[in-house]
Write the structure tokens for this entry.
Amino acid sequence: MESLASGVHGFVTLLARLMLVAIFMLSALGNKIPQFSETVDYMASEGVPQPRLALFGAIALLLLGGLSVIPGAWTRIGASFLFVFLVAATFFFHDFWSYGDPAQAQQRQVQLIHFMKNVAIGGGLLMLVGFGAGPWSVDGWIAVKEAEATGATVRPKRSSSKEKDKAKDTSIE
């Protein structure tokens, strides 16, 4: 039963990593890189300082973060890169608070939805930072190998009630 739970845990965390990273990789490879000049112009219109340099940085964060999180190698660092990108993108491009005119109510609502979507994605990234990539990852494989090398177990085994009773009988009081 424990191996089934471990398999489900591994599969679910792998699927979650792929789902989280898809939007970032598509953004870099499908938009920002092939439409570099147009993206620089758009960033400038949104008030991003040094938009050309910022776009190079954004692409680096997206690719390094995504390529780290997908296989689960240095996952916490990669998820942190994606989180930094997400915070900056959310601030500059989903600034719902700047739409105060009642005529812009619909645009304000759209930007609020995008802002909250990014908050949710950020929560997923922070979960990766806090808990890691899971067992089906390079980080998980390394943890297993390190534990084997030191003679430690990867997970503490649950002791049966017989083992607990035996331990009580042999303990010094």
